[in-house]
Specification:
With 122 residues, this protein is mainly alpha-helical. It contains 6 helices and no strands.
């Protein structure tokens, strides 16, 4: 008896879309909590950890789709648009570790996705 972890190749694009949606929801909750609700370093780090989980889920969905599903970039664009609000009040957010951590995660995620190449079908 074997346990199947990954979906069949025919189902991977559909499954990756659902993981992108789940990652987007988790990431949005973390971004809202980090920018609006966090009152200290501990809460910033907790929100940053939740955002890291969302980024890992996004990367997993992108990897399941064999680095071909471009719909995940909509999620990154939405997450990056949330960075525009702190940039308008940059003097306040320049000392915010959540701002710098989330911006770094998005930069690494975008760079990794841009450099990833699809694997050959075998």
């Amino acid at each position: 008896m074997s346990v199947k972890v990954l979906p069949a190749k025919a189902d991977r694009p559909r499954v990756s879309w659902w993981i992108f949606v789940l990652a987007w929801l988790i990431g949005n909750l973390a971004l809202i909590a980090g920018y609006e609700g966090a009152q200290g370093l501990l809460e910033d780090m907790l929100a940053l950890c939740v955002f890291a989980v969302a980024c890992v889920a996004w990367w997993g969905a992108y990897k399941i789709s064999n680095f071909r599903n471009r719909g995940g970039f909509i999620v990154i664009a939405l997450w990056m648009s949330s960075l525009l609000i702190p940039l308008l009040d940059f003097r306040h957010y320049i000392r915010d570790p959540f701002f710098w951590g989330s911006a770094a995660m998005l930069a690494f995620l975008t760079g990794g996705a841009a450099l990833a190449r699809p694997r050959g079908d075998s």
